[in-house]
Amino acid sequence: MLGSEWLKTRKRMIKLYQIVLNLSLVILSLILIYCLFKELFYILNDASRGNLDVHEIFGKVLIFFLYFGFISMIVKYFSENYHFPLRYLLYIGITATIRYVIVNNGDTMRDLWSAGVIFVLIISYQLLPPPETNKD
């Protein structure tokens, strides 16, 4: 008797946590969409004014794609039935680090450490088991 009540309570708590998580992700995605369009406005504004500072424009483009990456992570979470595969986090980590190197180049040691980070992420990706494929 006591075990079945505990199991029901546990299932209710898991359901509640899932609802809170999903609601939080929806709110976060709305905030990120707002920030994405705000950054796009800044990029288009710089382009229309003829801003020639390449590093400033690349920095804004980097931020734009980071927002885009986080929004796509949230979409992937919902499309994978409330599961986010680790390989997508590694994809995002690799591309974000490469974008960081492109925008913030110049310091050789920092670039070397960033290359090491990319290398570790690629090795981690290679160590993952292959994705499951549905052969219907």
TrEMBL record:
Which BP terms does GO give this entry? cellular response to phosphate starvation
Q: Where does the protein end up?
A: Cell inner membrane
Q: Where are the transmembrane segments?
A: 16-37, 57-78, 84-103, 112-128
- Keyword vocabulary terms for this entry: Cell membrane, Membrane, Transmembrane, Transmembrane helix
Q: Which family is this protein grouped under?
A: Belongs to the PsiE family.
Q: Which InterPro entries match?
A: P_starv_induced_PsiE (IPR009315), P_starv_induced_PsiE-like (IPR020948)
- According to its UniProt record, what is one Pfam family this protein matches? PsiE
Q: How does it sit in the membrane?
A: Multi-pass membrane protein
Q: Which GO terms describe its cellular component?
A: plasma membrane
Write the protein's name.
Answer: Protein PsiE
